[in-house]
Design a protein that fits this description.
The protein is mainly alpha-helical. It has helices at residues 2-22, 34-41, 45-57, 76-97, 103-118, 122-137, 143-163, 174-184, 188-198, and strands spanning 61-64, 68-71, 202-208, 214-220. The longest helix is centred in the middle third of the chain and has 22 residues, at 76-97. The protein starts with a helix and ends with a strand.
Length: 222
């Protein structure tokens, strides 16, 4: 019974910390302090250690000798890897989803695009963008494929929130509209090609470090 309770607490801690890391509230390379987290959640160190293991399995944290458990950093190579994986998997999902897309689904996806264009901050844009992709891909009915794509979108969100902590500018997503136009006209292969190129576009933004200097941060803006 106690083990089940610890597992439940560990799941909650890992979910909360994962959300904070993805949203950029905990910076890359920041130390995750076991005692502080145990105190925050009113628990022992056992479920906290299990939560850390889960974060490591998700690639969100890393355990380093003499440096403790820290939020995993990422570089341009990792961003490109996620972009390439998204392109391959989302292209596959769209080809299977296309025969099942209805006018109502495409109308919802168009509204998601408009919401993204109107977004005043990066968090609102990411939510609308993710909704667009889910709407056009979910009808593929391939649960494992969709779960893998969801994990990649979470990674994309982390890159995005880290790069665009401020200074987000509204944008018009012409790719989304081109994808929808192709799908409405029954040109699924063309829509898949546009989608694959779309998710491989990587943007760059200057980010101020704690020391006061700036570094380039990269993110998938699609």
């Amino acid at each position: 019974m106690a083990k089940e309770r610890d597992d439940t607490i560990a799941s909650r801690i890992s979910r909360v910390l994962a959300d904070r890391i993805i949203r950029g509230e905990i910076a890359p390379d920041a130390r995750l302090r076991q005692d502080h987290i145990a105190e925050e959640f009113g628990t022992s160190h056992v479920p906290v250690r299990e939560a850390f293991r889960r974060l490591e399995a998700q690639g969100l944290a890393i355990s380093l000798p003499r440096r403790g458990v820290r939020v995993a950093s990422f570089d341009l190579k990792e961003v490109r890897e996620v972009a390439d994986m998204r392109a391959a998997l989302e292209g596959l999902a769209l080809k299977h989803a296309a025969p099942h897309l209805t006018s109502a689904i495409l109308d919802e996806a168009e509204q998601a695009t408009r919401d993204g264009d109107a977004a005043g901050d990066v968090h609102a844009w990411e939510e609308a963008n993710r909704r667009f992709h889910r709407l056009i891909l979910a009808p593929c009915g391939m649960a494992r494929l969709l779960a893998a794509i969801d994990d990649l979108h979470a990674a994309s969100a982390r890159f995005l929130f880290s790069a665009w902590q401020s200074g987000w500018e509204k944008r018009t997503d012409h790719d989304h509209r081109a994808i929808l136009a192709a799908l409405r006209q029954g040109r699924a292969d063309e829509a898949a090609v546009i989608l694959q190129k779309h998710v491989q576009w990587i943007g760059r933004a200057p980010v101020r470090t704690p020391s006061g200097s700036t570094r380039d941060a990269f993110a998938i803006v699609g």
